Structures are given as C-alpha cells and as structure tokens.
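Usage

Read records sequentially. Each one opens with the input sequence:
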Amino acid sequence: MNRRQFLEFTSLILAGSSLAGNTYSTEHQQQLFALGKNFIEQPANIFSDSQRQLVRNLVDIIIPRTDTPGALDAKADHFIELTVAHYMTAEERKTFAAGLGELQAVIDSAGDLAIEAESKALTVLLTEQLNNLEERHSDAAWYQLGNRVGNGFDSTAPFICQLKELTVVGFFMSEVGATQVLRHNPMPGIFDGETPLATDQPSWSRNRPGDLS
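and closes with the structure output:
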C-alpha cells in the first residue's frame, strides 16, 4: 500500500458507507479494506528500542487504559511506527524524529529516569512535556483543521500534533477501538425544531443560532 492508498483507506474507514457508489467502486473499496485488514500485523523497524518504548509511553498517556481499552491495547504505538516508516514524507519523518529526540533529551537530563521503567515519575515528566509542546505550538494550523470546510491532512504539523493525530487514528481504526470504544452518533449536534427562519431561507443555510441572513 502506498501513501495515497493509505490516505484513501483512512478516509474510507472514517467516512463510512456515505462514499459508496459515488467516489469508490465496490472493487476499489474491497481492495482498500483488504490492504488495511492486515496493516497492523506488518513488521516495522524504523525506531530504535528506546524510541519504541518512548512512543509506547506517550500513547499510553494520550489514551490510557481505564474501564475501556487504551492505545496500547489497540497497538497504536506500532501503527505510528508503520506510518512513520511507510507513509510520512522525509520532512514529516524528520519532524517526528526531532520531537522524539527532544523528549529523550529531557529524560536523559532527569538523571535517574530510565525510559524502560514505566514509573509514575516518568509519566509525570512526559505529561508535563506534552503539555509544554501543546502550549508552544498552540498557534499551529493543525489546530484549526476542525474549523475548516473540507478538513485535510496538514503536512506542516509539529511533532505534538503528529503524535496526537496518529494515536487517535490508530486507536479508532483498530478492532479494539472500533468495537469496544467507538460509538456511532447518527445525528451529531443538537436538533432544534423551533429555529426561526427567514421567509426565503432554506433550513440548511443557517450558519449559527439566530442567524436569519
């Protein structure tokens, strides 16, 4: 599966059957689903052992196991390594590697914290660093994707955004995330059956509550 196929497969999974019959033929859908089925089972060796353990710790902080499965149960860490290895551009991969390197340097400077020891102190330190990265890059365009029409992939996203996006996508595209955590909302948002409309205004043209223009 190349980068384009991967993005198509991801879009198909997230969009669901609404694309069927319009964008993709049945045969093409079957090909994409077949490619995606065993994606997580593929080997990946782009990370060092310490980087691999660091990613494990990070995804466990982003989606920890509670009364529902967490990112590690869904193998989101391996999903990230596969994506970095096969579907990131050289520049995106450089950004991700630099982000891991920065966090590793912080851990090393802490002295007695070992990345292999999943201690409470290490979790506290990494959580603090993730919050710092979030604050530092709060003006990144990635954070505005949800406010745009026609959301798209942001290749300029900083490391913290890459990490969060891949963790969430990897989790909810997994069998564990999709079957045990993800819930279908057939009508997102709030239904308002008494919204006043202008005489010549179609119901779907309202941009915000009270807007009659």
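Summary fields computed downstream for this record:
- The chain has a mean pLDDT of 77.
- The CA atoms of residues 96 and 159 lie 5 Å apart.
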